[in-house]
Design brief:
With about 280 residues, the protein is α+β, with helices and mostly antiparallel strands. The protein has 2 domains: about 140 residues, Thiol Ester Dehydrase, Chain A; about 110 residues, Hotdog Thioesterase (Thiol Ester Dehydrase, Chain A). The chain is about 15% helix and about 35% strand. It is built from 6 helices and 10 strands, in the order αβααβββββαααββββ. β9 and β10 form a beta hairpin. The longest helix has 16 residues.
């Protein structure tokens, strides 16, 4: 059934406060796939507590909202929902330990039609509890495949257009067969990523990798393409177009159309799994 756009735009989320420490930051980096080569000094500073650095994409795991979409009052058919895109703006580096609060709202509700569903954007701002300073603004795009047709405005076309030419950089990143089992310890307990019976019921041959894990890999590889520290990342966005299976090799194609900006796409074989990607870095 179509959702009620007014109800969703006015949906109230309680602020969520979370404490995290160096163990959480390290566990996230390990879940993304860093630290498998103990001689890789570039990765070591994200998995070693001495002078620990924190990946900016760690923010997507902080002060999360849980399975709010299961609340029947939302009108959302939650088991038909897909996380279709993510955009994050990083205002300042995350410390290796902090107390943070997340403030969330539904910023956009779009209508693709009765046969195509609806699209909403859940915006979450992560702030330091002590100073009130904003670390980042996270925009999660959710496709509600069974809930369109309420007569609303159609979603805008994607902003990112990839160049029709040879990439400036190509980077391959191998995921590991058990990576989803490790990544889920950062807070995403969806059994789709660990239980073969659950993944089989929705048409997958095995549990799939978290979209947010692929997103973290994209942030890391974009930093490698730009030859800049991940802490310099200012913006990261992409669309999740196909699932990634733990053990897949992701091939990232990067284009550098202007200083501090990299556009990208990621493939597994001939399948595009991340598309319309953009990474921008602080000067």
């Amino acid at each position: 059934m179509p959702v009620e756009p007014g109800k969703l735009r006015n949906w109230y989320f309680e602020p969520v406060t979370q404490d995290y420490n160096h163990r959480d930051a390290i566990l996230y980096a390990l879940g993304v796939g860093l630290g498998r080569d103990p001689l890789n000094v570039a990765e070591l500073e994200y998995v070693y507590e001495r002078n620990l650095c924190t990946l900016p994409t760690f923010a997507v795991t902080l002060a999360t909202l849980g399975m709010w979409v299961k609340n029947p009052k939302t009108g959302i058919t939650w088991n038909k929902l897909v996380h279709s895109a993510q955009r994050s703006t990083f205002h300042r580096p995350l410390p290796s330990a902090a107390r943070v609060t997340g403030f969330a709202r539904i910023s956009q509700v779009w209508d693709r039609g009765p046969e195509k569903g609806a699209v909403i954007v859940v915006e979450r701002e992560i702030r330091c509890c002590n100073s009130g300073a904003a670390y980042c603004t996270l925009e999660q795009t959710l496709m509600l495949r069974a809930d369109g047709g309420f007569g609303g405005v159609a979603p805008p076309k994607p902003e990112v257009s990839l160049p029709d030419r040879t990439p400036d950089e190509t980077i391959r990143f191998n995921t590991s067969p058990g990576q989803a089992i490790l990544y889920r310890l950062s807070g995403d307990w969806n059994p789709l990523h660990i239980d073969p019976e659950v993944s089989g019921k929705v048409g997958f041959s095995q549990p799939i990798l978290h979209g947010y894990c692929s997103y973290g890999i994209a942030g890391w590889t974009a930093s490698q393409a730009a030859q800049l520290a991940p802490s310099k990342l200012r913006l990261l966005e992409c669309q999740f177009t196909r699932p990634v299976v733990p053990g897949d090799e992701l091939e990232f194609h990067f284009w550098n159309p202007q200083p501090q900006q990299w556009l990208f796409q990621a493939r597994v074989g001939d399948r595009v799994v991340l598309n319309g990607g953009r990474a921008e870095f602080h000067a």
